[in-house]
Amino acid sequence: MAQNSVVAEGEEMNTLLSEYLNIMSGDGSGEENPDKPDEPDTTPPSISLQTSSTENTITVTVTATDESGLAEEETYTYYLDNVQQGVATTENTKTYTGLQSSTEYTIKVVVKDKYGNAGTEEVKVSTQGPSVPGTTEEAKPNPDQDGPEFGDTTTIQDDQGNSVVIPGGFHLDAESGTSVEEGIVIEDANGNQFVWIPTGTYQTSTGAKTNNLARRTFTSSGATEVNGDSVISTYYYGEGDSRSGVSTQIAVFKASASPKSEANPDGNGGFYIGRYEQGTGNVCKYNQIPRATVTIYMTKSNAKAMYGEESSVVSELISSYAWDTALNFICQTNSAGYTLATTTSSSYGNIGTGSRKNTGVDTNDNYSNIHDLLGNCLEWTTEYSSNGINSCVTRGGSYSSSSSYAASRYFGAPSDSNPSLSFRVQLYVK
Length: 430
Known about the structure:
alpha+beta, Immunoglobulin-like, seven-stranded antiparallel sheet, 30% strand
């Protein structure tokens, strides 16, 4: 009897111990908790991010999964450029506001599961650039109303999605196109106007075009890029040639005007040229007497004097790179194509008529909002000629010559000056 009592007592103790262990590892019911695995969960949640952006906001939506389940509190923590944005939350969507336009940000999200394991995912997102006024019905400006002045240099988007850099202190002119191919026109506080010339690849209504910043030779069917500053037609060398006297100057222009890249992080993907030939009074405005009878030294001085050191832009006498890239752009974006580069017909511009016109009044010579490039006056450039004393180069068609045309090159002496010689300004963002 005593031995049987001891055995029974031992079995009872084993049963109590088993129940105690179940209680300690379970939910108090004496049964094992099926929600807690035998081995601790150490795997963080899997995360994916979906983003969208406007000019000043970025929205991120988080999708997270975890076998053990996500934390019921303080599930998501959001960061902007590694700075935590508010407290952790249970909301899986976050909108970042008050951001700068056309700026890249790093979005990071940390997600916790019910056991405190944290998963992290990040993505780089750029805000949109402001739209060109007039690209939507709601935003169409009064046709006589200029756009607001941009206090700082700002990148905007045209209605084809192309980026256009508007220099600080300028505004969009009322006559500006709403796309690059139509001619984006900016104006300063004094009424001087310039047109954006894109470089690299840009979008048009008929598809993508490529307009590299390059010197060229033209035929009526197309253009051929020249290898840098190589010679053209025996006499003509690019500004990068040390004999041009502007080799340092052209390098800075090319860096600004070329597309942005890893090797050229400050590139703007374009530049501006005067909408018109320069007018008397050193202005770039409609219906002015051309600033003619000027030597090349005078043109360089006048061009540089348009904007001072404190300006957001640099103004210079137009280069061969700017002339050929602008002319190629005109040919790409107008139905007459490369006929525009080689025609001597006065029906396309004031060529060989014997009568000089005021700037912009020749309605035939207006392509993508750029006037007088095909004809009217010959225009001095900074290109170099190796033809002895005739070391300077003019471009374009002329009212005084029936054989001149937009792509033509002529050499001249630095002291040359006559009523058919004028100039045009190139403008680039610092």
